[in-house]
Amino acid sequence: MVRVTKNATERRNEILDTAESLFSQKGYEKTSTTDITKTLRVAQGTLYYYFKSKEDLANALIDRQMQGIKKQFMDVIYDETLSAFEKIAWVFVFELDYPTGHNEIFKYLQHDNNAILRQILHVQMICQSTPILTDLIIQGNKEGIFHVDKPTLVAEFFISTIHQWADSSLFKWSKAERIARIVAIQSLFEHLFGVPSGKFDLSLLRKTVKAKFNY
């Protein structure tokens, strides 16, 4: 048998792909590192060369999946041609209507044995998204659109709310149920961002995004 040699990036992604597949089938809690290495037909040492533990592997998997979403956020938030309102409108529509289908990436987290992965996702989502959203709020303050005294805390609350209370992977809400929960507290978001009542009406946000982003 010819031994197949793979470069580090290829091998690392192969391990992550296999872990994701097993986590989807059995769940994180029911999948061992031995399950992963047996499926891959590699030695345990190969896995531990790239990941010091199963938790380390799980963090790397969620981080890999987060990178595509983070790039989409950064492409919009740091686009100097867009106003702060156009950007926050995009954020709402991206999260609630998910026109790019990004929620499908994490659909496997609905598995009952993937609670730990859901927790990792929430932590990474808040940590990676908060600085980006903070910059958006600061821009809105400068433009006189937002009136926020503590941009970072508001950014954390905003991200936490969407990815905890309204998270379909945690509560298995339908799309309509998820949207209903956010719409119900739109007035709270308007207060937090210091915008007039009705400014975050979902129909207005969608209209803004459709005109600017063609979603």
Automatic annotation (TrEMBL):
DNA-binding region extent: 32-51
InterPro entries documented for this protein: DNA-bd_HTH_TetR-type_CS, Homeodomain-like_sf, HTH-type_Tx_Regulator, HTH_TetR, TetR/AcrR_C
Keyword Repressor: yes
Parts forming coiled coils: none
Taxonomy, superkingdom: Bacteria
Residues in HTH tetR-type domain copies: 9-69
Name of this protein: HTH tetR-type domain-containing protein
Species of the source: Neobacillus rhizosphaerae
